[in-house]
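Q: I'm writing a short explainer about YokU family protein for a general audience and would like to include a description of its predicted shape. Could you first generate the structure from this sequence?
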Amino acid sequence: MNCKWCHSQEATKSLEKAYWELPDGSRAVEMTHVPSIHCPSCEMIYIQEDIIDEIEDQMMLIDTNKLPDVFSYHQLMDQPKLLKKNYFKF
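A: Of course. Here's the predicted structure. Afterward I'll give you a sentence or two in plain language.
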């Protein structure tokens, strides 16, 4: 896999932890097992844009008050949606 930052061919998919601010700004949470890219050449760990968009959309569609302070990516994606789509995304 090609690293977005240093263009090394050694980047691999990994599951990492990430910290996220809820859309209403009320608190930050820790999310575990987030699909990520890790590059051993430059030591960069990053989340691809499509996964970021997926997380951001899900956060807009669920009741974030029901989220604990620490949860996994899959727990977030399994939350019941209150809306069918993110009407705030342009």
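A: For your explainer, you could say: The longest strand covers residues 28-38.
Q: Perfect, that's easy to follow.
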